[in-house]
Each structure stands twice: as C-alpha cells, then as structure tokens.
Amino acid sequence: MKKRVLAVMMGAALAVSLLAATLAQAAEYEMIVGHAQPEGNPRYVSMEKFAADVEEKTDGAVHVTVYGNGQLGTEKEMLEQVVQGVVQGMRGGQFDFSPRLLMFTAPFLTQTRAQVTALLQSDLAKSVCAEAEESTGTVIINLCDAGGYRQFSNNNHPITKPDDLKGLKMRTNGMKTIDMTFTTMGASTVSVPYADLYMGLKTGVADGQENPWVNVVGMKFYEVQKYFTAVNYQFHPDPFYVNAQWWNSLPEEYREIILECATEMGEYNDQLIDENSEAAKEEIIASGAEVYEPTEEEIAAFVEAAQPVYDQMVEEGICTEEEMQQMLDIVANAE
Question: 3-state DSSP call for residue 73?
C-alpha cells in the first residue's frame, strides 16, 4: 500500500514538473528571477504578483519563474549570474556592481514613505540606475523599498544612545554606509551573508544586526536577539536587475509590459511593507524580545552622531556634494 501511495505521489510530482516544463517551452521568452527573501516577505509576495502579471499580460509569451529564499545563492552570487546571463534577473539590495546606489542609504536621510518615494522616483535615481547598463551589463527596471526602515538589535544591552553601540560587534552585509554608521558610533562590524545571519547571531559571530521589522520576523531573528531599538536609521533601495542583452532582445511590446508590471510590483511591495511593518514589530514584542522606542531627543542624538558619514560618503566618491544636496532638497520638498 505504501509503495502504491509513493508511486502516486511521484507520478503527481512528475506531472507537475512536466506541466511546468511544457508551459516554459510554450513561451517565447523564459525569465528566471532570484531573490533572497522567504515566503511571506513583501519582496517574495510582490515578485509572485509580478510573475503572474507578466504571464497574463503577455498571454504567456514571457514565462517568469521566481526562485526566492536564496535558492540561487547569495545576493552577490545572483547578481553575478545576471551579469553573466545565467539567469535573467534578480531583486535585492546588492550594490557591489552599482555602488552609486549607496547614496540613497545615507543614515537618517528620510523620515516618511513620501520622502522615500520621492527619492526613488527622482531624476537623480533614474540617472544613477541608467549608469548600471554601461558599467555592469544590467538594466534596472524598478527601484522600490527593500523592506522599510532599518532598526538596531543586539544581545548585550538596550541601545538607547549612540554610546551604547561602542564595543559591539555588529553584522553588516558589506555595505559601506552601514559600516560607516556603526564605526562612527564606536561599534565594529563583521560581514555575514543574509542567509547565514540567524546562525551567526545565535553563535555569537555578531552581537547584533540591523534590518527592517518585516525581515526580522521573516527570518525569525527575534529568536536570537534580545534587544531592539526602533531607530529608523536607514532604508535600502531594492533594485530589480535584468540582464541587458536579454532585455534588449525582447520585442518593445514585451519590454513595455514588463516595465508596467515591475512598476506595479514596486508599488505593491511598498504598500505591503507599510501594512506589515507595525504588525511585525508587535510580533517581535510578543515573542518576548524588548523593543525600545527612543524619544525625539534621543533620535536627534543618533542623527547628530551619524553626520560625519555624509562627509565620508562624498570623500569615498559614493556621491558628490551636489548630489548630496539634491537628495536633501528632494526630501525637504516631498509631500
């Protein structure tokens, strides 16, 4: 009986696999896209919408297969695959090949969703994205929010002021502005891939980390971190990279449809982040972890302590003084 059940299950799995292969073969163009976030995360959910929308609006001519949860490797590895043409696209805050996107991660640059949207839809952002094709062989077809405002956590003590970071070993994904922010406040940093971060925190490779509430819940970091601070110090752009050669091989009609679907995906992604962030924070509190809410005066102390990072960003060539002022003007005028 068990053998018969197993045979039926295997047969069903084979049928599903053959159906997927048939659908892919029936399409004129195959688009494989990877990302690092787990099921339920806004990136995961919005990418599933993107895949369905593209197939529907192209009448199946473009078949999209999305691999989430880091199935295709780290974000850096996935971006390398896109550059090489092994896969057609990836979404994620990976800026190794487009370091100028780091300008939008200046600490405490924005305070509201309207300001974030104004920055990511600005002519400055479009100009920076356009640089990617020439330098990396990729096209950035959308730029949205990678997960919402980012918060501090650690296992040693509550972080209520900049001095509380002194002596802590904080995880970074290798992003310069994260390193600059932490080291400016007296912490040291250690680079740990996102997929390995849970175990890195559990084993003490890092004392703490920084991530949005939705990421903390999605990866269950609250199980291995005791103290969180709602500091809203940074947001990360979430570029959707596509291999330029593949992109340029598409008929214009399909490129327009994919761009339309990517725009809708980005708007949906940001909506999900806003809807889920507060609920995610409450889930972290319910888990028994401590969430500290700084006063306005305490936040002002963090903002002041982070100011040297702005000068460092200009010195490092992440942006010019003019571009820094452009960003500050965009934020100031956002409604």
Answer: coil
Listed in order, strand segments (DSSP E) in the chain are: 29-34, 62-67, 89-91, 138-145, 150-154, 169-172, 188-191, 208-212, 227-229, 237-243, 290-292
**Distance from C-alpha of 109 to C-alpha of 6, rounded to nearest angstrom:** 56
- Compute CA 181 distance to the chain's CA centroid, rounded to the nearest angstrom: 18
Please report the pLDDT score of residue 16 as a whole number.
Answer: 37
Split at pLDDT 50, 70, 90, the class of 329 is: very high
Pairing of strands 169-172, 150-154: unpaired
Q: Is the sign of the CA dihedral 213, 218, 222, 224 positive or negative?
A: negative
What three-state secondary structure class fits 284? helix
Dihedral sign for Cα atoms in the order 280, 281, 282, 283: positive
- Measured distance CA(136)–CA(145) in Å, rounded: 22
CA distance 90 to 109: 26
Q: b or e along 216-246 (b: 16 or more beta carbons within 10 Å of the residue's beta carbon)?
A: bbbbebbebbebbbebbbbbbbbbbbbbbeb
